[in-house]
Amino acid sequence: MSDFGTGGSIAQINYTLTREKGTIRGMHYQRPPHDEAKFVSCLEGVIFDVAIDIRPDSPTYLQCYGEILSAENARSNRV
């Protein structure tokens, strides 16, 4: 697989289509050594993506960050 500027290679790519407005998708989490970087993008419509720090020893434990992603604002294209 090709390098995506993450210090590693892409092992898996998933595409999801959500037709129902207001759909909530699940939280994604893996423990080391099987942890993976997640890249979320929106090709059509709008999504609200949220990241939550659930690492108990982290200074930002339980803090969250949300971002509206859409094809128009191109925020999911930033690396």
UniProtKB/TrEMBL annotation:
The record's section on Pfam families has: dTDP_sugar_isom
Named from the GO MF annotations, one term is: dTDP-4-dehydrorhamnose 3,5-epimerase activity
Q: Which SUPFAM superfamilies match?
A: RmlC-like cupins
Q: Tell me the domain of life.
A: Bacteria
What Enzyme Commission number(s) does the record list for this chain?
Answer: 5.1.3.13
The reaction(s) catalysed by this protein are: dTDP-4-dehydro-6-deoxy-alpha-D-glucose = dTDP-4-dehydro-beta-L-rhamnose
Q: Name one GO biological process term.
A: polysaccharide biosynthetic process
InterPro entries, A to Z: RmlC-like, RmlC-like_jellyroll, RmlC_Cupin_sf
May I have one GO cellular component term?
Answer: cytosol
Sum up the protein's function in the record's words.
Answer: Catalyzes the epimerization of the C3' and C5'positions of dTDP-6-deoxy-D-xylo-4-hexulose, forming dTDP-6-deoxy-L-lyxo-4-hexulose.
Query: What protein name is recorded for this chain?
Result: dTDP-4-dehydrorhamnose 3,5-epimerase
Q: What is the lineage of its organism?
A: Bacteria, Pseudomonadati, Pseudomonadota, Alphaproteobacteria, Hyphomicrobiales
